[in-house]
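User: Here's a chain of 465 residues. Predict its fold as tokens.
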Amino acid sequence: GKIIMSIKDVYCPIPWMFQAVRNNGDVRICCQANVTKNQGVVRKEDGSSYNAGKDDMNEARNAKLMKVVRKNMLQGKWSTECGRCKKEEDSGLRSRRQYEQEWGFKLEDAIKITEQDGTIKTNDTPLVYYDLRFGNLCNLKCRMCGPTDSHSWYEDWLQLYGGQGFEDTHGYVKLEKNNKGRLSTNDYDWHNSERFWNHIEKNIPNMQHVYMAGGEPLMIERHYDFLQKCVDMGQAEKMMIEYNTNMTNLQPRVLELWKKFKTVKIGASIDGMGEILEYQRYPARWKTILKNLQTIDNLDKNVHAWLACTVTTLNIFHIPEFMKWKIKESGFKKINSGKKLPILTIHVAHSPSHACIKTLPLEMKQLVREKYDNFKDWLINEKLDPNTEQAAMKIINSIVSYMMSGDTSDKWNWFKEYTRQLDKLRDQSIIDVVPEYEPYFIGESLKRIDDNLEEIKVQQEQTNV
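Assistant: Prediction complete.
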């Protein structure tokens, strides 16, 4: 017989008490839904997206897609938008859905307040949790990223792809030269909208958790005003604020503000150390980042931090070395040092395809496995405490399991082409950083990217964060 999913295995509190905003201000179900065709964006009847800079944020909570997802959950059905969590749970990774169960908002509560078609009364269910991406102002241009997440990408993007801009969920973004001669656009300035801030400030008394990413959130001026408002209204001491930050820009004023909050969580986007990090998250400097990590490691008890490590085709061979460093040398007292988040907090890049480890050809996957098996031997010989050893084994096994769970090696040529072109633009060389790739990059003819225009259109998917 067919196994019927239990509702509890599908239920997630997010569609009830949470609201997420993309870098361009488009409202979406949840950032994990980025892997679907619609990127989880909620639309109005006329097909245009709800946008936090222009539209009623409350109305967006009962958009058609929101209702469908809630209804599916209460019937024990997975929605396409929840596919990433489903895949991760199937590979033995811990999904966002599972993390979010810690909210006091239980399945019973959801059933009580949801109508047959998935509608909820928004006044009776205040938003207590926000995911805000304040535009795309960012000082890095990470290789698994693109111009929707970082304005620093603009020049390289046009050099790579031609054209005058790029696609985003709200349409084509055309780049213009500003008075400084730099490429720019206003499509990501929605967070300067008074309408948005009025909505947010009205709701500060209900807020329990605000997650902020960018761009780079610590570069956004308005974010400092927001923190100050939470402090002035006496809400900060009841609130948890959480960041995804590249750790390049830690200002004394933010350290002062953080002291006033109940909890501060910092997901530091660090995918390795030294030249691997500097290559994957160009033009980051490991020395600066390490110094900032050490500062964070010594902050008050209300600050919790972890290394949010994105596993890609670029750092897959480096992960064991990075874990050895974390276990043996980093000396961190706080960062990934508890039972809850041991060693590293791993995310695998699902897209773009050139960054996804399923794209590796079989012989490279075998090499990865060998390297990881050697690391397992090291773990056993080190006689570490059982918790650490188990955690490390689990990380290694789940990466291998994800890598082997599919074969997209038809995109391998695209990976090589993309990497070559970007290396040329940035005066870098993958072989210096990942010597394992040498056989693939030496002596092969250099095709121009223009020959692949069709392929490029397909490939212009944005990264998932």
